Amino acid sequence: MAGKNSPVAVLMGSDSDLPVMQSCVDQLKYFGIDPIVRVLSAHRTPTQAVEFAQKAKADGIQVIIAAAGMAAHLAGAMAAHTTLPIIGVPLQAAEGPSGLDALLSTVQMPPGMPVGTMAIGKAGAKNAAVFAVQILALADKSLADKLVKFRAEQTQKVLQKDAELNK
Ligand code: RP5
C-alpha cells in the first residue's frame, strides 16, 4: 500500500488508526499521490518517530500528515523536529473518549510551532489529504487542475442529490 519517494507521508500512532486513515490514503490516491504510510508513535516508538522527522526533508517529503488518538502528540513531535508543514488529524481511539482529547492535544501547539489541525476522524482524514494537495498545488499546475476538477465533481454530486430529492 505504501508508496516510496512520495511528497506526502501519512503517519499514524497505531495500526488501529488505519480504518479511519485509509480515507486519507484513498483521497491522496484520487489525486495521483501514493503516500508513504507509517505507523509511528510519539510515545511507543519515540526514537523512530524523531528519526523519521529529521530525515523527512532529505527524503523528498514535502508535507507530513500525522494522525493519532488519545494524548495525540505525534503531529507535535513531527513539528518539533522538522520545518516541513505538519497536518494533524485527531482521532477517536477505540478505548478513548470522543476524540476531543486528541483534538486538544493536536491543536494546542505553542506559538512558533504550528500544526495545521483538521476535524476529528474521517472528515479530518479526508481533509488532510485535500489540504496536503492544496499545499503541493502551489507549485504543481497539474495538481492545481485536479483540485479544480475535484471541486466541480463535488458540487455536481450535491446538485444531483438535490435534484433527486426534488423529483
Ligand atoms: C494512540 O493511541 C494511537 O494513535 C491510537 O489512536 C491510540 C490507541 O492505540 P492502540 O492501543 O489501539 O494501539 O497513540
What does this structure look like?
With 167 residues, the chain is α/β, with parallel strands linked by helices. The protein has one domain (8-140): Rossmann fold (3-Layer(aba) Sandwich). Helix content is 49%, strand content 14%. The protein has helices spanning 18-30, 46-56, 74-81, 100-107, 122-137, 141-165; strands spanning 8-12, 36-39, 63-69, 86-91, 116-117. Strands 2-1-3-4-5 form a 5-stranded parallel beta sheet, with helices on both faces. Strand 3, helix 3 and strand 4 form a beta-alpha-beta unit. The longest helix is centred in the C-terminal third of the chain and has 25 residues, at 141-165. The protein is globular, with a radius of gyration of 16 Å. It starts with 7 loop residues before the first strand and ends with a helix. The mean pLDDT is 97. 5-O-phosphono-beta-D-ribofuranose binds at residues 12-14, 16-17, 41, 68-70, 91, 93-94.
- Biggest sheet descriptor: 5 strands, parallel
Number of discrete helical segments: 6
Q: What would the average pLDDT be, to the nearest integer? A: 97
Q: Which shape, going by the Cα principal axes?
A: globular
Q: What is the name of the CATH class?
A: Alpha Beta
| Total count of domains | 1
Helix content: 40-55%
N-to-C CA distance: 42 Å
User: Strand fraction band?
Assistant: 5-15%
Features:
167 residues; alpha/beta; 14% strand; binds 5-O-phosphono-beta-D-ribofuranose; Rossmann fold
Walk me through the topology.
Layout: E1 8-12, H1 18-30, E2 36-39, H2 46-56, E3 63-69, H3 74-81, E4 86-91, H4 100-107, E5 116-117, H5 122-137, H6 141-165
Parallel strand pairs: 1-2, 1-3, 3-4, 4-5
This protein binds 5-O-phosphono-beta-D-ribofuranose.
